[in-house]
Known about the structure:
Layout (H helix, E strand, L loop, with lengths): L15 H14 L12 H8 L3 H13 L3 E4 L3 E4 L11 H17 L4 H12 L4
Antiparallel strand pairs: 1-2
Amino acid sequence: MSDAAVRVDTTSQVPPYEQIRAQLAALIRTGRLAEGERLPTVRQLATDLGLAPGTVARAYRELEAAALIRTRRGAGTRVAPLPPDTHAHDADRLTVLARDFTSAARTLGADAENILTAVRDALEITP
Length: 127
């Protein structure tokens, strides 16, 4: 990973694997992690974050299930090509984006009301 950094808040109610998954998914979807870019090994990222390898492995498995990354023996784990309909609006994608945003916001210490306020502000909607 180039300059993209993943951070884990061990005091957060969001499990560490979910924090990793959400942050990497957001980096991939926004293009900060480009197609083909190599991710650290499970063991390396676990060491960097001070976590158990199984925690990082679970995040990677979920990213693979979402077709955002691919792991190949000898080639490592790399960012997968985004599907052509990545920008198409659908309920499933919107749900994933909302979950990713919520997870990331919680890693910053935001509670439900802070998150709703931020979304309303972004949409320029008053409560």
